Amino acid sequence: MNKFLPLILPKYLARTKLTVYNRLASITTSNTTRTIPPLIWLIAKPITKLGAIIAGRGFRKWWTSLPKMKRKIFLAHLRRHRVRYGSGIGITTFTGFVYYDYHIQETPLTGRKRFILFTNEQLIEIEKLEQEQLFTIYEKDILDPYSPYVNRAMRVANRLFSANKEMPEVDCINWKLTVIDANLINAVAFPSGDLIVFSGLLDFVENDDELAIIMAHEMSHAVLQHAAEEISHSRLLDVISISLVLVVWAFLPSDLTAAIGQLVADRLLKFTLELPYSRDLEREADHVGLMFAAKACFDVRYSPVFWRRIGLANPEIIPEFLSTHPANESRAQELEALIPAALRLRQECNCYELPPHLVPPRPHLKIKKIRV
Question: What pairs with residue 104 in β-bridges?
């Protein structure tokens, strides 16, 4: 449940003096070496998958059209040269392993090993289009700096950034805050450091503590470079998926069975490797974000309260194993288990003493339907 926690705490147990700024400081991120053109990876998947289908189907058609004698000759040829072909397969596999191992990195703060194919700068380039589309859609809804919504979000953001800025992983990001007037209970952080908060979230939260929990969660995604990790993991799954497509279309007896086999293989990959991985990243962001909020002296006890209210206001219609995110109740239970450690961290940072009981949430918000 709290597998990330032992690696997080040592970096947080430092006493911090809080400084609240009138605006967010701009700190330019450092450049890193560009390794792979991002657009090539975005285009390569459908082309390669189609090529695998054509190649696999072509092999099947060729094999079924061979006379029985020629099949025996071909199999005899493979047996005679099995060392040569086996060596080729072994070298290819070893090269793939070396390439994979070369791209293994440690996750900032938690030290978890993960496969990273893209640099953060490359990911910023990839996600620039999505970011521009978001700002285009809500261009007229961006609130001005004097809005009470912006002032509130800025106040919380400044506490979070100020309390955690001694960590290079936080300090090296050029953080920028935008508040959008939209009835969405949501916030999002881009790898570039753009933190976007929707006014619906500000309306829904009971206090700054709940707001800080969500903003710290999104901030953690950017600090931990989860977007780069997730797209790298997707590319790795693409390699597995394309290999399976080639095998399925080459060895299943007909186009119909091959198409069904490909669909089954894709679903298995999604439910066993893709979705669980995404949920693990969300849990890691929950854990690190809780520590960010604790270090900024927010009342972290509101974190499970918030997720339970989300669950009541917007009941989930699909089970957790079909979702990219953990279920709201699961998140609440895991965060509850981390509260004692977060409170100890808060005490280490010489934060003010918390009241023994939480202020109960407003009842009308428990049944309000929301868009997340």
Answer: 115
Query: Taking the CB of residue 77, how many other CB atoms lie within 10 A of it?
Result: 11
User: Any idea which residue has 């997720």 for tokens?
Assistant: 307
- pLDDT tens digits along 100-128: 999 999 998 999 999 998 776 777 777 77
pLDDT given at position 45 = 79
> What does DSSP say about strands 194-198 and 187-189: parallel, antiparallel, or unpaired?
antiparallel
Predicted local distance difference test score (pLDDT) of residue 295: 96
Q: Nearest-CA neighbor of 193 among 22, 19, 60, 27?
A: 27
Q: Which residues, 6+ apart, have CB-to-CB distance to 106 below 8 Å?
A: 112, 113, 114
In angstroms, rounded to a whole number, what is the distance separating the alpha carbons of residues 255 and 263? Answer: 12
Active-site residues, by number, are: 218
Indicate the DSSP class of residue 366.
G
C-alpha angle 343/344/347, rounded to 5°? 85
| H/E segment holding residue 178 | strand 176-180
CB 199 within 8 A of CB 193: no
Cβ 370 vs Cβ 185: under 8 Å? yes
Beta-carbon contacts of 75 under 8 Å, excluding residues fewer than 6 positions away, are none
pTM over 0.85: no
